[in-house]
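Reminder to self: keep the SMILES exactly as supplied, no canonicalising. Ligand is S-adenosylmethionine.
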Amino acid sequence: MNEWDQRYDCEDFVYGTEPNDFLREHADVLPAGGEILCLADGEGRNSVFLAERGFHPTALDYSAVALEKGRRLAEERGVVVERVQADLADYTLDRDRWDGIVSIFCHVPAPIRERIYRQVPEALRPGGVLLLEAYTPKQLEYGTGGPPTTELLAGVEELLRPLQGLELLHARELERPVIEGRLHTGPAHVVQIIARRGQD
Ligand SMILES: C[S@@+](CC[C@H](N)C(=O)[O-])C[C@H]1O[C@@H](n2cnc3c(N)ncnc32)[C@H](O)[C@@H]1O
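Structure tokens returned for the bound complex:
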């Protein structure tokens, strides 16, 4: 069991079963009915929400415990979510594969982050959209959730660097209340990005 398996090894859903607020608000920007890769999807709240909205999501995470909880949540809600157990440290995104890539609180070390996001522009199909929300390094001052170290956190400039070539629809850092399960508990500092691959 890795540290995430241990965190998820409990009865409740540590980030709740409702989707992330930013995703819920902006899901319509994703191509309708499209195939969506949910990076570091955890216990499935976001992929299940997308399936309920008529998308075809694939949930990727390296925690087997999280993916199993996500499987149960999808079953309970009567929707289909594909699942991939993989480590982003060595995962390669297929090219021209996804109508959308959703990355919600995917906090990984900088080399892994850069490696994955560098592949995103070509992994999207023409017209495909990346939607991302994560805590910034400033979140450490808030103490309301997220990793305890800057090593796993990034601001908007750093996140945009590997996303060259995508059209930016939304890119900002802001303070907002994040109350999403018992591990995300209040005012927070986040970065949000929505970026689209052109039609080529
Ligand atoms: C803060 S949780 C967010 C979960 C989910 N996106 C949500 O918003 O409910 C971060 C997730 O990243 C996953 N994760 C961390 N490092 C990973 C890696 N190297 N490869 C794949 N998943 C990873 C963890 O297992 C965990 O589910």
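Points to follow up:
The two ends are 43 Å apart (CA to CA).
The CA atoms of residues 91 and 116 lie 8 Å apart.
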